[in-house]
Each structure stands twice: as C-alpha cells, then as structure tokens.
Specification:
Blueprint lengths: L27 H10 L2 E7 L5 E7 L1 E3 L2 E7 L3 H7 L4 E13 L7 E11 L2 E2 L2 H15 L12 H5 L1 E7 L2 E7 L17 E4 L22 H4 L4
Antiparallel strand pairs: 1-2, 1-5, 3-4, 4-8, 5-6, 5-10, 6-9, 7-8
Bound molecules: flavin-adenine dinucleotide.
C-alpha cells in the first residue's frame, strides 16, 4: 500500500500532464467529481512476460481510494494482489470537436489516471467495499438483493487503490483552429455527447407483483 498521502493531482514527476498542461486539473474535488461520475475504469498491469493488459472493471471511489472487485482466479486480480504496479484510468467522453482541419479535430473529455499498488481488503472492510461498489453503480439496490455467500466472498478479490499518485485532465469547448484556417469553407464547432439510461426491461419470468419498476431505479440519472 502507498499510505495515506494527500490527494494532489499531477504533483509527482510521473503524473505531471505534459501535453496541453493547461488542461490538467489540480483540484482534488474536481478529480473526485470525475471519478464519481464514471461507472467503468480500465486497470492496466504488466504480466511476468512484460506484456501489458488493460482490463475494464466496475469501480467506486471511497474517500481517497478507488475500489474494484473481481474473480480471485483472473489474471488482473492475481497480479494486483501480488503487488504488481497498476495504472487505473477513468475516461468520460463528452463530445467531438470538429475543427476546420483534421489535425486540430479532437474530443472533449474528463479523464483520471491513478498510479500505484493495490491493497487487498478482508473481513468487514471487504464487505463494506462490495456495498460501496454496488451502491455507486446501482444506488438503492444493495439492501434488496441477496448478500454474498461465504463461497462467493472467497471467490471474490476486493482491491483498494489509494489516490496518492494521480492526475486528471479535462478538455471542453470548441475547436482551437489555426488562424490561417478560420476562413476555410467548412462547418466547425463541437458535438456534445450525453449518456442516459433507457427504459428498464424486466427479466424473463418476473412475477406480476414486480410489474412496476422500483422508484429508486426510476430515479437513476446520467
Ligand atoms: C477520450 C480521449 C481521447 C484522446 N485522444 C487522443 C489522441 O487521439 N491523441 C493524443 O495524442 N492524445 C489523446 N488524448 C490525450 C491523451 O490521453 C494524453 O493526455 C496525451 O497522450 C498525453 O501525452 P503526454 O506525453 O503529455 O503525457 P504522458 O507522458 O503520456 O503522461 C504524463 C502523465 O500525465 C498524466 N496524464 C496524461 N494524459 C492524461 C489523461 N488523459 N488523463 C489524466 N491524466 C493524464 C498521467 O499521470 C501521465 O502519467 C485523449 C484523451 C482522452 C481522454
């Protein structure tokens, strides 16, 4: 574990944003907001042969850590639990930027990168982390569903990664065209991209008494 260092985005030599440093986010609260808005992360590890693997996972932020869980048998969780260094990223795609040139065309986004080593959670901390991940993804659900059995808990690794070494970058707004391209006869601007939940679809064979979707699910917003 990396200990409880303060969250100070971009403050280490490894996490200093080099290209477009003006897009770097220094405020920890802004970094928390990006993590709290995301549902999915990619965790990259390198195996014994030197091959990197970037694996998508569900996650939640809890205070100054991110939590994620998975099968104890999977490569990612085996390597993380054995102390491999990890690179954890969350990317929220907010739109496309249509510049007058191909070169200046880009994306709007909010992204976070965390470097470090994971700790393995056990006992009450493990149980609490599972609830935190579930409540981040599906608020209101944990108290309704069957709780994990002892066998399910044994098969599940729950990892905690401190935000001690992290960075965040935010790109927003319209294109930054070259002065010489401003007169070109082409539309320019940006196209925002938004994410939203669609109408919930009941499971096959759901008893009639559950024909109404619970309010807590109806209240989910993206
Ligand atoms: C949705 C999306 C699309 C992108 N598309 C492109 C693309 O097509 N081409 C391109 O060149 N770049 C793209 N970027 C930017 C890219 O992620 C990097 O920011 C860029 O490659 C940084 O290069 P560097 O040499 O400055 O940083 P590096 O030396 O690679 O990074 C230095 C440190 O800066 C921090 N950092 C760098 N990038 C990010 C980030 N995005 N979020 C949080 N921390 C970061 C990390 O802590 C990293 O260790 C995209 C970003 C996003 C989120």
């Amino acid at each position: 574990m990396d200990g409880a260092r303060p969250v100070n985005p971009g403050s280490s030599p490894r996490t200093r944003v080099r290209r477009y440093p003006e897009l770097a986010v220094k405020d920890p609260e802004a970094l928390y907001r990006i993590l709290d808005a995301g549902l999915m992360a990619h965790v990259a590890v390198t195996d014994e042969t030197g091959q990197p693997y970037a694996v998508p996972v569900a996650y939640a932020r809890h205070d100054d850590t991110v939590l994620f869980h998975g099968s104890t048998a999977s490569r990612l969780f085996r390597l993380c639990a054995a102390g491999s260094p990890v690179c954890f990223t969350v990317t929220l795609l907010d739109g496309l930027v249509l510049a007058r040139s191909a070169f200046e065309s880009s994306m709007n986004y909010r992204s976070v990168m965390v470097l470090g080593h994971c700790g393995v959670l056990h006992g009450a901390a493990k149980q609490a982390a599972l609830e935190q991940i579930s409540e981040h993804l599906m608020p209101g659900r944990w108290k309704e569903v069957r709780q994990p059995s002892a066998q399910e808990l044994r098969a599940t690794a729950v990892l905690e990664l401190p935000l001690a070494e992290c960075s965040a970058k935010v790109s927003e707004g319209g294109p930054d065209d070259n002065e010489s391209d401003l007169g070109l006869p082409v539309w320019a601007g940006h196209v925002p991209l938004t994410e939203s939940w669609s109408e919930p679809v009941p499971a096959d064979g759901l008893p009639a008494e559950f024909s109404t979707v619970p309010d807590y699910i109806r209240s989910w917003r993206r």
